Amino acid sequence: MRSNRPNASPATSAFPSFAGLDDDSAAQHARQLYGDRLPEGLLSGSQYKSYERMFGAADIISEAELEVESEALADESDDLTGTGVLREAEDGSLEEVEYIAEAEAEGEDGDVDADEAALAHLEKEWKTMDEDEHIMYLDDVRYFKLEQYLRSNDKDEEADELLQCLFLHYEAKVEAEASKRAELENENEAEDNLIQGVVEEEMRDSEDTEPAGEATQRTHPFTAENRFTTFPSTVTLPQSALVGPVSAIISGTSPVHLADAAKRIFGGDGLPYSTSNPSFAKSMPQKAIPLDPSLDRMSDIEADSYFAAVMPGTYASVMSALVESRKRLGSSWLEGLLQKEGGPRILDAGSAGAGVVAFRSLLRAEWERLSDNSDDVEASKGLATADGRAGGAPVEAPTGKATVLASSDTMRKRASVLLDNTTFIPRLPDYIHASDPSAAQHGKFDIIIAPHALWPLKEEYLRKQYVANLWSLLNADGGLLVLVEKGVPRGFEMIAGARKFLLVTRVASPGNEKVAEEVDEPGEGHVFGVRDKGKGMIIAPCTNHAGCPMYTKPGMSAGRKDYCHFEQRYTRPPYLQKLLRAKDKNHEDVQFSYLSIMRGRDLRDRDEQAIVQGDTATSRAFEGYEHMEPEDFAEEEFDPTAPAISETSAISETSAIRTSPHGLMLPRAVFPPLKRTGHVILDLCTPSGTLERWTVPRSFSKQAFRDARKSQWGDLWALGAKTRVAREGVTMSAKAKRRLAEQPPKRKRAQPIIYDVPVDGSSGKVQEGGIKPLVGGRLRRGKISGVRDKRDKTGSGRGRKKASAVD
């Protein structure tokens, strides 16, 4: 019986040992040597888990099957092929025989004998070589044939020895290539140093300060913990929770029909009107995603197109936003949700369940972290308790209670395959106008995920109402709202408009705790027409509560160049790969704008974490936190080689707030860093709510310069800079300005000249001498149809009276 799991017994001596390698490296080597058919006992349990995670399940072949296959291969190699013919036997029946031409048989015998002689000679030559000669000749492909030859002649021990040498040679080759790349990078840095003219001094400094044999300098802990990235950096869609069910959902639709429908719906090749952002889409009109879970009607093939084309990119962008929110809030946020009775309450208001799958994946990872007892030897020997924290495997992570917006029947049927313990609703409840006024004050959901939900709404007031309703549905004691849109200027404008609305009307900040009441707001209202805002705070990506520096001109702006957006790489599932007919790569970088904002808690309060933002935080971040000791970080493990700020520079008491900077006190890189020779330029959105350009040269700090060269788009920066200048957001590109300037100025419409033509009443002739143009006044004769006539439909005389011009 063939199994899909490796035996727990250790690897036999017939195969190379991977004991000295980590799990991922062992899995990669096994894949290269044996493909998807692994010998039994080759990998340990943890190594096979890594193999299954990276390459899928493998066929485990037993030793008996391997012997049978090797014998069959040997028999096949010895057999001579010829032409099959039928011959009459003595009893009159027909039997099949093989006809081989005499010349062909002689030639093949000669070839086989020559090959065997060559391999036998190679075997003798191999035995006479020493270790260095083995390494020299291992690149020859003949030695792979020699390994097969030895096994076919029942010389398994010698074949295993040869295979082990091949494996060790492969490892040495990989290490040599890695060291060669490192040397090449060091050479490039040395060339930069020569251009700057300071290479000799820095080499002397590095020899005095760096330990011998240290190839690379380690990343500063503040830089590592404030990176905008998932782990691993490429998001892989979960096979059991998303890829497998979606593959089953769309299996009933012809792939050709599905691809044609997706092209028709999402804008043609490359699907530019889905979550994808192909390069040619920059010249196309910006449009929202045509399919939305809130649509009342959707055909089967449209629903399949949504699940195949839109859901993978939505999952990746939502996962990136959730991971960044979790980094800023810390582990206590998810721990509190897991401790709730029944788990957290989740609302997916725009992705048909992809947001729920992403958040449950985050919950599962946090649950596994809390349940990890691998370091506790005594706990690993005990029996598993109810919460899975003492010995054995942990119990399954709580999934919480999910509610998903899916208006059409086709969408609900497909989403129900993905999700368990989920309620599907055709429309969002309206807590603002609910009969119970306390409903909107307390909310219901612990987290609301609304991807691609604002852009389909055509009017600004509809989007404001929608955001206000989502805010009322949010739990007033720490609920989190995550809004996501496409990473294009229109998508950014949707997010920036929602951010401005919430800051102006819902979220209180120091010095801005009240807001004027709207006329149509429900309730009795206040005497002075103002009301108090509630507690709240922006979690990501902004580290300020001022106006967005890239949204100085509200609404739509033609040719907007600078806008806040980020990207996340993910691995395309097989069905999306077929849908795009992609053959060169299986990954994609989805670009998105997002906002993560919390209701009911403000980390800036003194009873919370006392986070300080504004000009004070910006000035302190510019000075740098390089020499501040982080929590749980030993000083002897980190030895910076150059000061980020002068030892004699005075740091104000207000700027030295904490030794470990919180991520919400740091500026964020909103554009890819400009990495030049000898310096790095960072375009940052600061805690003051301004765009600034910070320059980090090599002379400022070796550690800061090294981390700046490794920094990426979206990272928070904590190591300071040498210079800073203000940077204005470009609301219109130079091309759009030039096109606008080339357009001819609009001319005022010429006013028609009206003449008064007098007519003799007795004769009916025109009096030519009396013709003159009318200047000033109004001329209204007869009944005037239009707006002014409609103002007095009741005949009560309240409408505007019609006046006639007097000649």
TrEMBL record:
It is found in: Mitochondrion. Residues 798-807 have a biased composition (Basic residues). The keyword Phosphoprotein does not apply. Keywords: Coiled coil, Iron, Iron-sulfur, Metal-binding, Mitochondrion, Transit peptide. Residues 1-22, 764-807 are annotated as: Disordered. Residues 8-19 have a biased composition (Low complexity). Mitochondrial ribosome (mitoribosome) assembly factor. Binds at the interface of the head and body domains of the mitochondrial small ribosomal subunit (mt-SSU), occluding the mRNA channel and preventing compaction of the head domain towards the body. Probable inactive methyltransferase: retains the characteristic folding and ability to bind S-adenosyl-L-methionine, but it probably lost its methyltransferase activity. This is Mitochondrial small ribosomal subunit Rsm22-domain-containing protein. It comes from Elsinoe ampelina.
